[in-house]
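If it is no trouble, might I ask you for a protein's amino acid sequence along with its backbone structure tokens?
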Amino acid sequence: MTGNAKDKSNIIFFDGVCNLCNFWVKYVVRNDPEGIFCFSSLQSDFTENFLSQNNINSDFETIILFSEGRFLKESDAVISILFKIGGFNRLISRIISLLPVKFRNTLYKFISRNRYRFFGKQQDCMIPEEPIKKRFL
């Protein structure tokens, strides 16, 4: 684990072959110049071990955020990430959080179930570019 993981906090677990998920990771990287987030694909050994040690099951259908000793999934993870990025993203997170949880998670699950059909899929997990490689676990 790299030193940037800040005691295993602010880790975004994502589907490494999903084009939408990779777009999201790149968005977070661009909007997180301080590097508070680290990333790990759901397909990695690190993720499998870390989630297993914490009794978290991954069905590869949701983003998982580990932050401040808690695991967040689905829309709660997205809202928290947007809030932590700050700026205009914080406003977006507050607007999304006004929606009922059941509605936001139903929408999240619909997109998640259809993400490969809508956005496509890669054969292999993305390989991060050198400047951000240290943020990937």
